C-alpha cells in the first residue's frame, strides 16, 4: 500500500526566511506521480506541481523549488524568501501509475505553514 | 469554464438524516473523486468514478453511496448521518491517465458538513 508522510505538523517562520517542507513516500510501483497542493485559509486546494518518478530533475518556479530524490523516497518543497501570503496548509500526495490506480491520490497529513510579518 | 462546482457550501445535519452532496464539472473529465478532510488531517478517498456508470470504493466508503449517470455529475449520498461524518468534503476531477504522465486533479471548493 502507498503512504505519504509529512513529518512536520506545523512550521512557523518570519517573513523572508527560507523554509523547507519535507515529504517522504512509500510505494511498490516503479512508476508513480508526486504532487504538492496548497490549501490557503479560504479552504480551496491549489495545485502546485506534479513530478513523475522518471524525472528526478529538481524544479524551480519563482520562489518555489522542489527536490525529488528517489534514493531516499523524498519530495521536499522549499519556499525561498517566504511571504505572509505563503501561510497555508501544504499537502504532498502520491498517485500510482498502475492500470487500476485511476489517478487516485494518497495524501500526507499536511504541514501548516505560518509566516509572520 | 466553472471548473468543479460543489453544493452546498455548508450544511448542518441531525443524526440519522440523509443528504446528497452535489458535484459537477464542465471540463469533460473522465475521472471524478470524492475525498473527505477531517480536522488536522489529509484528504482520504471515499469513492471514485472512471466514467459514467462506473464507480468504485476508495479508502473510507462506509456510510456513503455514489452514482454517475453523466460525465458531468458525481453526487455523494450520505445515508443515516453520524457525527463521525462531520468533515469537509471535496470533489475532484481529472483526465484519464495516459502513461507515462499523471494528470493533476482539479478540486471543487468543498462542502463543510456538521452532523449533530
Give a description of the structure.
The complex is a heterodimer of chains A (117) and B (116). Chain A is mostly beta strands. Helix content of chain A is 0%, strand content 52%. Chain A has no helices and 12 strands. In chain A, the strands form 3 sheets. In chain A, strands 2, 5, 6, 10, 11 and 12 form a 6-stranded mixed beta sheet that branches. A 4-stranded antiparallel beta sheet of chain A has the order 3-9-8-7, with no helix packed on it. In chain A, strands 1-4 form a two-stranded antiparallel sheet. In chain A, strand 5 (32-39) and strand 6 form a beta hairpin. Chain B is mostly beta strands. In chain B, strand 5 (43-51) and strand 6 (54-57) form a beta hairpin. Chain B is globular and about 35 Å long. The mean pLDDT of chain B is 91. The interface between A and B is medium-sized, with 29 and 29 residues.
Describe what is shown at a glance.
The complex is a heterodimer of chains A (about 120) and B (about 120). Chain A is built from no helices and 12 strands. Chain A has about 120 residues and is mostly beta strands.
List the helices and strands and how they pair.
The complex is a heterodimer of chains A (117) and B (116).
Chain A: E1 3-5, E2 10-14, E3 19-21, E4 24-26, E5 32-39, E6 46-52, E7 59-61, E8 64-69, E9 74-79, E10 88-96, E11 106-107, E12 111-116
Parallel strand pairs in A: 2-12
Antiparallel strand pairs in A: 1-4, 3-9, 5-6, 5-10, 7-8, 8-9, 10-11, 10-12
Chain B: E1 4-7, E2 10-13, E3 19-25, E4 31-37, E5 43-51, E6 54-57, E7 64-66, E8 76-78, E9 87-94, E10 106-107, E11 111-115
Parallel strand pairs in B: 2-11
Antiparallel strand pairs in B: 1-3, 3-8, 4-5, 4-9, 5-6, 7-8, 9-10, 9-11
**In percent terms, what proportion of residues of chain B is strand?**
over 45%
Helix count of chain A, per DSSP? 0
The mean pLDDT of chain B is: 91
Overall spatial form of chain A = globular
The H/E string of chain B reads: EEEEEEEEEEE
Coarse structural class of chain A: mainly beta
Biggest sheet descriptor of chain A = 6 strands, mixed
Q: Cα distance, first to last residue of chain A?
A: 41 Å
Overall body shape of chain B: globular
Strand content of chain A: over 45%
* Poorly predicted ranges of chain A: none
Q: For the report, how would you describe the main beta sheet of chain B?
A: 7 strands, mixed
Distance between the termini of chain B: 36 Å
Low-confidence stretches of chain B: none
Please state the CA-atom Rg of chain B, rounded to the nearest Å: 14 Å
By DSSP, the count of extended strands of chain A is 12
Count of β-strands of chain B: 11
Task: Calculate Rg of chain A over CA atoms.
Answer: 14 Å
Amino acid at each position: 500500500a502507498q503512504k505519504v508522510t509529512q513529518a512536520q505538523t506545523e512550521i512557523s517562520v518570519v517573513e523572508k526566511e527560507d523554509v523547507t517542507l519535507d515529504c517522504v513516500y512509500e510505494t511498490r510501483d516503479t512508476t508513480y506521480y508526486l504532487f504538492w497542493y496548497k490549501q490557503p485559509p479560504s479552504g480551496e486546494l491549489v495545485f502546485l506541481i506534479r513530478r513523475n518518478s522518471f524525472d528526478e530533475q529538481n524544479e524551480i518556479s519563482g520562489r518555489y523549488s522542489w527536490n525529488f530524490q528517489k534514493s531516499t523516497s523524498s519530495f521536499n518543497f522549499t519556499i525561498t524568501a517566504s511571504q505572509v501570503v505563503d501561510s497555508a496548509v501544504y499537502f504532498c500526495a502520491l498517485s500510482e501509475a498502475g492500470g487500476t490506480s485511476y489517478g487516485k491520490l494518497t495524501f500526507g497529513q499536511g504541514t501548516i505553514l505560518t509566516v509572520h510579518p | 469554464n466553472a471548473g468543479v462546482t460543489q453544493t452546498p457550501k455548508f450544511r448542518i445535519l441531525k443524526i440519522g438524516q440523509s443528504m446528497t452532496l452535489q458535484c459537477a464539472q464542465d471540463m469533460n473529465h473522465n475521472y471524478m473523486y470524492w475525498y473527505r478532510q477531517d480536522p488536522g488531517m489529509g484528504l482520504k478517498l471515499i469513492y471514485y468514478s472512471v466514467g459514467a456508470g462506473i464507480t468504485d470504493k476508495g479508502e473510507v466508503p462506509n456510510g456513503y453511496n455514489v452514482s454517475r449517470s453523466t460525465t458531468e455529475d458525481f453526487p455523494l449520498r450520505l445515508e443515516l448521518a453520524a457525527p463521525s461524518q462531520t468533515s469537509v468534503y471535496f470533489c475532484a476531477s481529472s483526465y484519464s491517465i495516459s502513461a507515462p504522465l499523471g494528470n493533476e486533479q482539479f478540486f471543487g471548493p468543498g462542502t463543510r458538513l456538521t452532523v449533530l
